[in-house]
């Protein structure tokens, strides 16, 4: 582990720690710092008018500076005070892992920063989006609890195979789009692949639906009324283009509801509509409404079928509280209810998220199968039987029994023992010389191997992941592709040195640098660079050197002619400086 921990991070399980990478602060160039400063100054100036009040307060509370890219260690010292922490990761991580971090009050921050060419928007997660977008709002206690609760519920959402394929495709696109020099045809191909996947996802999985909720709240949420909304979503707070665009009439404002879960999105385009919540408490209300639709709370036949389709490690919980974690392979149904289930491969049994002694993946290495439901012709379920009832039906140690369930499942063998939960209810019955059959088909037969039959009238819950995190080795993440680090060529390195000189001048580290000479070098050797001249313009205005400021402004007019796409960025930068000095004059 190469990152500095704190009490919040100490609680993270190993399978989440595998995603964390150290933030190498020295890797940020002076150009990166200038990009951060430009976006933050512009954002704070604009967002002070249109963002939720928590944004500006949160910037102060979370220790995020306008002038410097945040250092994760510094942020963590401050976040600790509000019970949160931040970690650096490499771009996109799987949605369930992202949400599980939130459940532990940990903010996941992609530590890379967008290139100057993508200063307004990048599809790749970056420190502007995460640090300047997500972090400030969590200083609001109501919103922070929503985020934590969202993570807790979201990481239990069941996915399907196509979800992971889409995640990998989106991650790949974000990497190549942010990498300099990627051929346009490669980007077009990646975008087409995502479009094809999105058009052929079939019925959306739980993770797909809850990801929609996340997008329309945490990333692109508005708060207030549709007529007078304020911004709180991180995607809007960190995008100088979209934060202005979203306030226009071109973007439809819809009152927030559970409908947002069934509204898909396209990460490559500005959003055509946004949802407006009346307050942060209402977000939690809709989240609970959505959670009521999940297998986590509904269980049943549909719940286990979702786990089978997901082909991922999952858990079912029976009405006795017994939890079975593994890869679910099949279910036998009877009259719309599960009658028998089977896992394949390592399986663990737990109660209240704690593995039962003697029921680890070693004991159930090849799978676990059991009937569910009531015995045929008996209204009383086994779990509801008193010791006298059990004796009356011969369900006790040393008895040779044949138990027939309503779903035509028969378990015949000698009872060895029973395992009870804390309430005294029987949750497992262990047999030897056992045979399990469905109608005429034998499902399990053994003389030497013991058979454990789960006791449960019904499946009350089905969810992604294991009940006890310690039951399985979950440290298996393999990154399919990493963000592309491009080494600066000699011209770019030299440009970076000029940025660094001006940064040192502004911070008072070296005031002997000739700003005029730097400007001449930029004008002659880097005629398309606009951000450093804007910084030089600010310094000229600060020093009252109006002639120099005019000379820079005239040069920037030429840059605008040669690079029209940068025109509004230049204008915004100059207006920001001019407004600052006009305001100071009025004071």
Description:
The two termini are 51 Å apart. The longest helix has 21 residues, at 30-50. Helix 6 packs across helix 8 and helix 20 (531-542) packs parallel to helix 22 (567-586). Strands 7, 8, 9, 10, 11 and 17 form a six-stranded antiparallel beta sheet that branches. Strands 12, 13, 14, 15 and 16 form a five-stranded antiparallel beta sheet that branches. Strands 4-3-6-5 form a four-stranded mixed beta sheet. The protein is 42% helix and 19% strand. The protein has 22 helices and 17 strands. The relative contact order is 0.09. With 587 residues, the protein is α+β, with helices and mostly antiparallel strands.
Give keywords.
587 residues, alpha+beta, five-stranded antiparallel sheet, 42% helix, elongated
- Output the number of helix runs: 22
**Proportion of beta-strand residues:** 15-25%
Can you give the helix content as a percent range?
40-55%
Strand pairing plus helix content: what structural class? alpha+beta
What shape does the CA trace take? elongated
N- to C-terminal distance: 51 Å
Largest sheet: 6 strands, antiparallel
Uncertain runs: none
Keywords: Iron, Metal-binding, Monooxygenase, Oxidoreductase
Cofactor: Fe(2+)
Organism: Zobellia uliginosa
InterPro entries: ArAA_hydroxylase, ArAA_hydroxylase_sf, Aro-AA_hydroxylase_C_sf, Aromatic-AA_hydroxylase_C
């Amino acid at each position: 582990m190469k990152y500095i921990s704190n009490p919040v991070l100490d609680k993270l399980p190993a399978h989440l720690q595998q995603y964390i990478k150290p933030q190498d602060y020295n890797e940020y160039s002076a150009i990166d710092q200038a990009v951060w400063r430009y976006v933050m100054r512009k954002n704070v100036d604009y967002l002070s008018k249109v963002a939720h009040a928590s944004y500006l307060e949160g910037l102060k509370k979370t220790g995020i500076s306008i002038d410097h890219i945040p250092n994760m260690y510094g942020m963590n010292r401050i976040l600790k005070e509000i019970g949160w922490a931040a970690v650096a990761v490499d771009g996109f991580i799987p949605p369930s892992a992202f949400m599980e971090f939130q459940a532990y009050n940990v903010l996941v921050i992609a530590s890379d920063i967008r290139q100057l060419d993508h200063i307004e928007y990048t599809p790749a997660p970056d420190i502007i989006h995460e640090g300047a977008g997500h972090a400030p709002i969590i200083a609001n206690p109501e919103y922070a609890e929503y985020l934590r609760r969202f993570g807790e519920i979201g990481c239990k959402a069941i996915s399907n195979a196509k979800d992971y394929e889409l995640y990998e495709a989106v991650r790949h696109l974000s990497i190549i789009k942010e990498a300099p020099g990627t051929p346009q045809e490669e980007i077009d191909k990646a975008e087409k692949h995502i479009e094809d996947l999105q058009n052929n996802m079939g019925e959306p999985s739980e993770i797909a639906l809850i990801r929609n909720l996340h997008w329309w709240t945490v990333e692109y949420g508005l708060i207030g009324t549709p007529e007078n909304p304020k911004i709180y979503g991180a995607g809007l707070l960190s995008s100088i283009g979209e934060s202005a665009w979203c306030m226009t009439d071109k973007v439809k404002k819809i009152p927030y509801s559970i409908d947002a879960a069934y509204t898909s999105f396209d990460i490559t385009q500005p959003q055509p509509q946004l949802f407006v919540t009346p307050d942060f408490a209402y977000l939690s209300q809709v989240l609970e409404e959505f959670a009521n639709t999940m297998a986590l709370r509904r269980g049943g036949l549909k719940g286990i079928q979702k786990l089978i389709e997901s082909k991922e490690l999952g858990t079912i919980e029976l009405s006795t509280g017994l939890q079975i974690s593994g890869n679910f392979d099949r279910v036998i149904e009877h009259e719309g209810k599960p009658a028998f289930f089977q896992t394949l491969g390592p399986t663990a049994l737990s109660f209240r998220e704690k593995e039962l002694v003697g029921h680890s993946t070693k004991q159930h290495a090849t799978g676990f199968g059991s009937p569910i439901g009531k015995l045929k012709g008996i209204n009383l379920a086994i779990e509801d039987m008193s010791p006298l009832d059990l004796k009356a039906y011969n369900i006790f140690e040393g008895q040779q029994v044949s138990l027939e369930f309503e779903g035509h499942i028969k378990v015949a063998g000698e009872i060895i023992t029973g395992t009870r939960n804390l309430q005294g209810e029987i949750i497992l019955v262990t047999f030897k010389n056992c045979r399990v059959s469905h109608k005429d088909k034998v499902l399990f037969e053994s003389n030497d191997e013991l058979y454990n039959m789960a006791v449960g009238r019904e499946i009350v819950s089905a969810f992604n992941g294991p009940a006890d995190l310690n039951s399985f080795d979950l440290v298996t993440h393999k990154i399919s592709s990493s963000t592309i680090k491009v080494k600066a060529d000699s011209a770019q390195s030299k440009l970076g040195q000029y940025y660094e000189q001006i940064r040192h001048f502004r911070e008072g580290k070296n005031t002997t640098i000739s700003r005029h000479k730097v400007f001449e070098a930029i004008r002659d050797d880097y005629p398309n660079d606009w951000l450093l001249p804007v910084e030089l313009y600010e310094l000229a205005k600060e020093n009252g050197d109006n002639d120099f400021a005019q000379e820079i402004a005239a040069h920037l007019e030429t840059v605008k002619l040669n690079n029209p796409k940068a025109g509004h960025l230049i204008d915004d930068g100059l207006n920001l400086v001019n407004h600052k000095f006009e305001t100071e004059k009025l004071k």
